[in-house]
Amino acid sequence: MNMEQKPISELINLSGKNAIVTGGAVGIGLGIVSRLAEAGANVLIADLDEKEGEKSTDGKKVKFLKTDVSQEEEVKKMIETVAKEFGGLDIIVNNAGIYPQKPVSHMTKEDFDKVMSVNLRSVFLCTREASKQMISQGHGGRIINITSIDALHPSMIGLAHYDASKHGVWGFTKNSALELAEHKIWVNAIAPGGIATPGVAKMSPSGGDVKKNIEAFMAKIPMRRMGEPDDIGKVALFLASDLASYMTGSQIVVDGGVLLS
């Protein structure tokens, strides 16, 4: 079968595409927003951090909506907003997540439920509502879920609830990919390793045990560096573009080789 190959510039061109990035105000999310917008997409940043989110908008191609993605009505409003502001939805990156460190012995039910609601329930809600919009449009779409290497192997003590949520996101990614394939909606995941973000910096107070954990983690990375948000942004662009036209239900590990150690 002969198929005419698109030039690379066309494969990676997202002009006319409309995207949502949850948790897009800072860190990994902002790295993803930057690359999608650079490739031509209109991007709605959905985040609780209004101050940082507004900094990243340009009033035209990149807009901000204060959103708690763990809440059903706010997710529905998010989808309605992207359809109103940009005319539709083609790409959603489910990136919002929290990772408070606490050992199971000191973890409360509320601690566990909070992490599950933000990290896992949000992916369900966003996938359900985004796919409804994409199906109604009739030309497919891309759903990209940010998991973690912790979906494959634990990184440190104190993140049991986080690890459970990320295992859940990986399982949800595979099953929803199976369900949505008939609608030409491809669902994939990215599993970051250690990425230098404001959130990670806050995890490592001077002299604390977390700092020692981060240093021990760094020593395991064959590339001998933490990743940057753009390392994830570039892979998200790949999955959002036609470079990944024959991928669904996959998870790309972006960890500097740490899982090799």
UniProtKB/TrEMBL annotation:
Name this polypeptide is given: SDR family oxidoreductase
Domain of life from the UniProt record: Bacteria
Protein family (similarity comment): Belongs to the short-chain dehydrogenases/reductases (SDR) family.
UniProt xrefs under InterPro entries: NAD(P)-bd_dom_sf, SDR_fam
GO MF assignments: oxidoreductase activity, acting on the CH-OH group of donors, NAD or NADP as acceptor
Organism of derivation: Candidatus Giovannonibacteria bacterium RIFCSPLOWO2_12_FULL_44_15
Pfam family, one: adh_short_C2
